[in-house]
C-alpha cells in the first residue's frame, strides 16, 4: 500500500518505492485483477468474447492500440476505463509540467529542482483519474497543441534566449507523461500532424521548432477511429498506422438481449418516471429492433452506422410519451402503448444518416418505416406467421378480425386518449381479445391490451388491414376497401415530415 503521506524525495527512497513504466503498470495490474477474478471493464456489454479479450492481449503485450469501429460502439468508454488498471496514486515532482517521476526525472525543471534540493525535493501525489488525457482530432489541431512550441512570453519573463529549452511550452502529449493519452477520430487529424507522432511512438523524440529533445516519454497511447472517416474525411497515414501495434475492431450488439441491457443501463430515467410508467418486454424489444432494422435498411447509410444512442434516446422518449399522456388524464400510473411510439420518431431521425433514397423519403418517414418493420419482424415471434394464411383460409386465427373490418368497420386509435377510451376501442374489435388470450393467456391486463394493439399493427404490416394517419392517431380499416377508394396499402407512406410534427 502506497503511503501518500510521503512528501519528499528522501522519504520516497526510504519507503522502497519502485517506479514502473505506465505500460508495465497496466500489465501487472491487469494480471493481478485477472488472477483474483475481479471484473474488468464492467458495464461494457456484448464484448466479453470479442473486444475485451483483444484489449487485454494488447495491454499484456504493452502495445499502443487503436479501437476501430462505427459510432456508438463504446470505443471512448473502453479507453477511459483503462484508468482502473492504473495504480491509485503515483508520486510526481511538485510543480513539474511533465509529471516527472521523482526517481527518473525528464524535464529540465525537475532535474534542476532535484539537483538543488536533493532529498528535500517536494513531491505531490497524482490520482489515477488525473492520469487520463483525451483530445478529439479536428482539422484545426496543430503541432503546438499536441507537441509544443517555443513561448516568447516565457523567454521574455525568464530573460532566456530562444535556444534555451526552458522557453518551450509543452503540448498535451508531453504533459501526459506517465498517463493514458487518447486521440479520438484519428483520421480527422491532418497528415502533417500525424507525422509529428512518428518519433514519439517509436523513439520518444520531441521535435519542437529548432529543438530536438530526447525525452523518453512514458505514455500509453489509445487511438479511436471510424472506418467511415477513411474515405469521407481523411485517413491514417501508413507509417503511423504501422507504429500502432494493436488494431482492435469493435462492433454493435449482436443480440436483442444484449442491446436491451445496454439501453437499460445507459438510459437516464428518473425514479418517478419508472414508478409512473409500466413498460412490457415486447415494447422494449421493439425499441431495440428499430436499431437492428436501421442497420439493414436501404435508406440508412451503413457506413455511418447506427449508434446505440438511438435506442437509449428512443427508450427515454417512449417512456416520456407515456408519462405525458398519463399526466394529461390525471392517471397515477400508465402503461406504454404502440401509439406512444410516435414519440420515438424524433429520437430516431437525429441518429441516422440517410442515403439518397432515404433523403427522398424524408427522415420522419424513414423513422416510421423502421418502426413498422420492427413490428413486422417481431410479430411472428408472438403470433402465427400471417404469411401462412394469405391463401389458406382454414384455421386462420385472424379471420374473425379481418372479416369484421371487411364488413366496413373501422377503429380509430388516437395518441392521446384516456385508458378507458383506449381499452374500449380495442375491445370493440371482435376476435382481437380472443386472439391474444389464445396465444398469451398469462399476460397482465395492461400488457394484454398492448398485445391487442400490436396485433392490429402486425396485421397492417402484413397487408391484412390498412392503417391511415389521422390528425392525432391512426385509423385501421379493410385493405380492399382502401384500395377501391383509391388509397394506398398504407397511406402513411405518402406523409411528409410536416405531417409528423405539425
Structure description:
The protein is built from 24 helices and 16 strands. With 502 residues, it is of the alpha/beta class. It is 42% helix and 14% strand. Helix 12 crosses helix 14 and helix 12 packs across helix 15. It is elongated. A hairpin with a 2-residue loop joins strand 15 and strand 16. The chain folds into two domains: 241 residues, 3-Layer(aba) Sandwich (Rossmann fold); 246 residues, no CATH class. The strands form six sheets. The protein has a five-stranded parallel β-sheet with strand order 4-7-10-1-11, covered by helices on one side. Strands 14-16-15 form a three-stranded antiparallel β-sheet. The C terminus is likely disordered. The longest helix has 20 residues.
Task: Provide keyphrases for this structure.
about 500 residues; alpha/beta; Rossmann fold; 5-stranded parallel sheet; 24 helices; 16 strands; elongated; disordered C terminus
Kindly state the mean pLDDT as a whole number? 89
- Low-confidence parts: 492-502
Fraction of residues in H or I helices: 40-55%
How would you describe the shape?
A: elongated
Tally the helices: what do you get?
A: 24
- Strand order across the largest sheet: 4-7-10-1-11
